[in-house]
Design goal:
This protein has eight helices and seven strands, in the order αααββααααβββββα. By secondary structure, it is α+β, with helices and mostly antiparallel strands. Strands 6-5-4-3-7 form a five-stranded antiparallel sheet. Strand 5 and strand 6 (about 190-195) form a beta hairpin. Helix 2 (about 25-30) packs across helix 3 and helix 4 (about 75-90) packs antiparallel against helix 5.
């Protein structure tokens, strides 16, 4: 690997990690010795790249640093394509359309020699059959409510067909092969609950935002999942 390519990859590794990453981890991925990593980091820092940290603890890339123009290699293109094809086949209509648009946009920026990797792919995600159950609600609007931390009132039917009305704080939407699941805090139960979107008959999005941050609530939810696994 040319040194210039190695430096770009080193920056990408730092950008990928939110927490300090040690020189040994970087060296393993770049397939170089730790001493080379220390030398490269010192060289980048000398050129004004805001890398913070020290040997034995790890390094992070400071905020506000602009990396060179975005470009992908063949493996990265194929990784995106598999994910996007799955989303196109399994997500709601709005997200499926967005996946097709992303493929087109990526194709526009690729150099000529990489376009076949995208448009004549060696990988694909199967189009599952049958399709997911039909939904009565606007899932795109529900995704917007998640992003904006809006409370949502839903009319819900459980597996036995029993109806209830819930006010929930939607935190995340999971896409599975045969269903879509909303992770939410349920005001009625005073706890985290999971709701299938195809069992929602109505969804009214409030202007009112729920308190706290979505990240902290998701962390609490993950904690309950971990406790359940450990039990």
């Amino acid at each position: 690997m040319r040194r210039a390519d190695r430096l770009l990859q080193l920056l990408q590794i730092l950008r990928r990690h939110r927490r300090p990453v040690t020189a040994s981890v970087i060296a393993d991925e770049l397939e170089v010795c730790v001493r080379t990593v220390y030398r490269d980091i010192a060289g980048l820092a000398g050129e004004g790249v805001p890398i913070r940290g020290e040997a034995g603890i790890g390094y992070v890339l400071g905020e506000g640093y602009d990396l060179p123009p975005l470009m992908f290699n063949a493996d990265e293109i194929e990784a995106m394509l598999v994910g996007l094809r799955w989303v196109e086949a399994r997500a709601d209509a709005s997200l499926s359309r967005a996946a097709r648009d992303v493929v087109a946009k990526i194709g526009d920026i690729l150099p000529k020699h990489l376009k076949p990797v995208l448009f004549e792919p060696a990988v694909d995600a199967p189009r599952f059959s049958p399709p997911p159950p039909e939904e009565s609600i606007d899932v795109a609007a529900l995704r917007a409510a998640i992003r904006e931390r809006r409370k949502v009132a839903i009319s819900y039917h459980d597996e036995q067909g029993r109806a209830s009305r819930r006010v929930i704080w939607p935190l995340a939407l999971g896409y599975f092969e045969m269903s879509r699941i909303v992770v939410a805090w349920c005001e009625l139960r005073g706890d985290f609950r999971h709701f299938r979107t195809d069992r929602m008959r109505k969804a009214e999005i409030f202007h009112q935002r729920y308190p706290g941050t979505r990240a902290k609530l998701l962390a609490r939810w993950r904690g309950t999942i971990d406790e359940g696994r450990a039990a």
